[in-house]
Structures are given as structure tokens and as C-alpha cells.
Specification:
Bound molecules: flavin-adenine dinucleotide
CATH superfamily of the domain at 6-229 and 350-411: FAD/NAD(P)-binding domain
Radius of gyration: 23 Å
Distance between the termini: 45 Å
Number of strands: 24
Shape: globular
Mean pLDDT: 87
CATH class of the domain at 6-229 and 350-411: Alpha Beta
Number of helices: 19
Oligomer: single chain
Low-confidence stretches: 232-241
CATH topology of the domain at 6-229 and 350-411: FAD/NAD(P)-binding domain
Largest sheet: 7 strands, mixed
Structural class: alpha+beta
Helix content: 25-40%
CATH architecture of the domain at 6-229 and 350-411: 3-Layer(bba) Sandwich
Length: 577
Amino acid sequence: MDEIKHVVTGDVLIIGSGLAGSMAAISCLEYGQKVIVVNKGKMCWSGSTAVCGGNDIAVCFPEDDSALWLKAFVESSDYTADQNWIEIFLKESYTQLLKLETLGEKHGLEIFPKQNGAFWRINRAINPFRTVLCNLYSALEAFSKELKVSNAVLYERIMITKLLEEGGKITGAIGIHYRTGEVYLFQAKAVVLATGCCTYKADLFDVCGEGYTMAYEIGAKMMSFDRGGAIMRPKDVMRGGLLCSSASSSMANALGSKLVNREGVDIKEHMTEEEKKLGRVGQDRAIQREIEQGRGPIYEDFINLPDNVKTVLSQLRCAAVKRVQLEYGKNPFTETIPMEHIEQTITPDQSNRMGGVWIDCTGQTSIEGLFAVGDASCPKISFQHPYNGSDLGWALLSGGRVGKYVAQYCADMTMNSQNDLNDIQVRQELARYRALLEKKDGVKPDELKEMLIQIMIPYDIHHCNEKAMVQCLDKIYNFIQQDLPRAEAENLHELREALEVYSMAHVAVMIVSSELYRKESRVGVRREDYPFMDNLHWKKWIGFVKHENQMCFFTESIPENLYEIPDEVNTPFVTRL
Ligand SMILES: Cc1cc2nc3c(=O)[nH]c(=O)nc-3n(C[C@H](O)[C@H](O)[C@H](O)COP(=O)(O)OP(=O)(O)OC[C@H]3O[C@@H](n4cnc5c(N)ncnc54)[C@H](O)[C@@H]3O)c2cc1C
């Protein structure tokens, strides 16, 4: 711990290997870069991509109507989508899909399931567009096979904790192997940040916002954290309820499954038109009512699905299917699965439709040589809800095209720094690890995480009006000033957690401060005190940057080159989670 054991040098350092980071690595390799990939979890198998497993992705097919995609992105993002990036999506997303398909074929894996020989597309949730089914388990397997046989240098179980810069240019990063305690210094001409989002849910502990915090700390522009981090999930998400919750509003439902009540009646028959429009929220309301009116339990019914649908669902939802088999002892394709109850909760979840590190159309951030892709970047195209495939679409597109721009950048660069091991940035980071490990009589990081989660949840109560947000922000600042410094790490595992909770707390400030700045309701944030979307005053993106240790906010106008945004103040908020 007192010294750096490993110094690794390359053209480009990629941090994170979910869908975006893996696509970025392959794209940089294509352009002949000497690539280093560092991942906190197992190579290619951690983060949101690994959890969401089999899913659907927003991709514009050549036969699609571009104008409709444009309308969907602009309107469904409450006009916040970047129209320049929509143009890129229309032109390039299909190419990225084909690239991934070819990679799968090379390794004997079917990444995109087929229906009658063609890509299988579905209408999911409230998305008017057909997204394409994708087996991300196969994609991740293909990535890991490809990276292993490539020239890339791979490091797993290493958590990057600090980006290094010199004179406004990125020079590398420092990280710790949380099983061996060995510290690594990575030196590169360019860095691609692919560290995913920041979640406050205990079931996704890999993505804790380190990418956001590290980029912010070296002065990168950040953007769109005001777009709300709320995501409505049934509380018992990892039960049979995982299958159930996705059933009506999303994939399984799009493929023809049903939720039936005790009498065997499809609950859709009892849903109001409004509930049908509200997607999963409406479905959950209907479930609750059925149970309250004595028609529960509700059952997941996959029994009558065609065989090819059963096959594809069991592949795409294999983790959930296994779970149902283990927990209920049932085969969901031959027996109905009862849902015991459904309890709504809203959890903050800094996923892709929200903020991240600002990037331009090449993926470069405001720090020279630092690129960002996927959830780590500020999503330039997004829908109201990731279940419409836009998050994965963004990871595929932003990661898949970044190699070209990284290569262009690196071509003009010599290694601009050899961070020496006594560099002040490096020494400070080592001291930070040491202090956490040496602290006695402090607070365990898991307790701190729990305290922070309590401050951020329930999202709809803490983030609904100015008073509640100010109180929430005060609590976060108190937490940062009084509780965080008490973190103690008895071992390396706890050291990792302590470093994570540090990031989560700082991202919490980014979210709540940005929400407070916007005085209207838009995307995921619905204000009781400003219940209307106000295009007259707030047709803008909100960003911030660190300046003299302060978070300084700024706004940027949203381009209207393809779609004119109406100047109106009359769109009342509706729940569309
Ligand atoms: C349950 C669930 C369901 C979802 N459903 C959908 C859906 O239906 N449609 C949709 O479009 N999107 C969906 N999403 C969102 C989608 O999964 C993500 O937007 C997408 O996978 C992001 O990919 P990524 O590569 O940017 O990040 P991730 O896949 O999260 O990868 C980030 C990687 O960075 C690594 N990492 C993090 N911090 C560090 C660090 N400090 N040092 C080194 N490595 C680090 C992590 O270990 C991880 O491997 C869902 C997400 C979840 C959790």
C-alpha cells in the first residue's frame, strides 16, 4: 500500500467493461491503438449491462422512418435530447448493431435472436418504436472472448479511484486491486470513461458513480443531472416479481405474456385507458387494485406463448427464470407464477436518461484526451424510461464509434506525461487509502451507504419541491462533512466500499443541486411547486463544473436544427416512469 507496484502504459486506457466500455475497447483496437482495459468487477461481467442481461436496444434500421425516431426521441425526452446526436443515431446505430452481430458470429454466439430469419423487433413499454431484442449475455461472452485473444492488456478487480491530469490534459489514472491491495498506475495518451451510472439500490453495487466524481474532480464539465434519477420499481424486484414486473409493460408482454388474476382473467381487461398509457406504473396500480378487491394473487402466465417465444424469453431472462425455479420450484413456462404482493418504491438511480460527463459529438469531454461513453457520459439521446431501449442503444452507439476519435486524438499526441510515482496526485491517493485502512473506532462503510440511501429514498418525497430538496441537500452535506470522515475500512473489501460511498455522496449532491436549479417539471423530476414544463424559460440543458472548489452551474441552449421545440408553458406533468 505504501508504494505503487505496477506501472502500465498504453495509448488508451478504458475504464469499465460493460456494453459501452467493451464496444469502445473493440473500436479502439480496430484503429490500432494499444489498449488497456481496467474493470472493477470480472472482465465484461459487471455493471448494469450484466444485470439487465437479455434486453432490447434502440437502433434505427434502414427501413425505419427517421422522422418518427426523431419525434420519439425529442418528445419522449421532454425535448432534452441532443438533435445532433439523434442525427448520428439515425445514420450510425445500425452499423454498430451489425458490428456486434458480426462479433457474435465470430465467436459462435447469437447476440440478436431472430424471428423468421430477421432481427426480432418488439414494441416495448410505451415506446411507439420497435426495438431490437438483444441477448446481452451472449454479447458479454463475445466481448470477453474477443478481448482475451486481442492485444489489449486486461485488468479485472481493479477499482480506479482517481484520474490524473497535467495542464488540462488527461495523463492516466490510479487504482487499487481490492483483493491483493496492490496499487496500479496507468499511463495513457487518452482515457475512455465507461464506468456506468450511480445507483443507490443495494442490488446493483458495482456502479457507484466513481466516473462522475473522478471527472468532476479534475474539472470536467458535467451535464443534465437535473433530469431526474427516479425509477419506479416494485420493491421485491428480485423475486418472481422480476419476471412479473417486466411482463406487462415491457419485454415479456411485448412478446405476448399475460398477468392473470385468481380467476384466470387477464388483468388488462380491468385496466383503465389511463392505466394502459402509464406503462408499468399503470400495470402496478391495476395489480394492487385486483389484490385489494380480492382477486389476487396475480399470476405470471407464460404458458400459452409460442415455443420460439419461450425459447427466446428463457435465454433473455435466464437469471430470472432460474430464480423462479429455485425460489418457487416452478417452471414458468409450464406453470403460472404467483406474485405475492407488489409494493411500489421509487429509488434514485442515476441511469442513462439522466446526467453524466458532458461530451461533444466525438465523445470527448471538456478535458483534453478524456472521452466518456455509455452511462458515464451525459446521454445525448434518451427516452423517459430506459426500458425503451435508449440506454443500451446509447451504450452501443457511443462506445462503438469512439475508437475513431480516440485514434485521431492519439495520433497527434506524444505521451505527454510520465507521472512519476512521487507525483503529488499519486501520493495523495495513496494517503487516502491508508487513512481509511488505519482509521479506528469509525463507522463501517455499509452503515454509511445505508444512511445515504435513507437520505435519497423515497425519491418522490425528498425530491418533489424546493423545501424538500433543500432539506435533502442539507442532509447530504451534513453526511459528507460529519459522517463520511468517520469511515473506517478494516479490510480491502471495506476500503472499496468506503471509496464507493464517497462517490455516491458526491453524486447525490450533483443530482439534488441540479434538480434544485431547474424551476419546472421535466423528464424524471416532477415538482409540486413548479408542476408545468416551461419551455419559455427552461428550454435548456443544465450543467456544472468545479471552479475554485465550488460547483458552478451554467445552462446551454438545446439545438433545434431538426425539430423546433414549441415555446409553451402548458404541458402538465404526468407520471411516465
Ligand atoms: C435492472 C436493469 C434493467 C435495465 N433495463 C434496460 C432496458 O430495458 N433498456 C435499456 O436501454 N437499458 C436498460 N438498463 C440500463 C442499461 O443496462 C445501461 O444503460 C447500460 O447497460 C449501460 O452500459 P455501460 O457500459 O455504460 O455501463 P455498465 O454496464 O454499468 O458498465 C460499467 C462498468 O464499469 C465498471 N466500473 C465502475 N466503476 C469502476 C471503477 N471505479 N473502476 C473500474 N471499473 C469500474 C463496472 O464494474 C462495470 O463493468 C437497465 C439497467 C438495469 C440495472
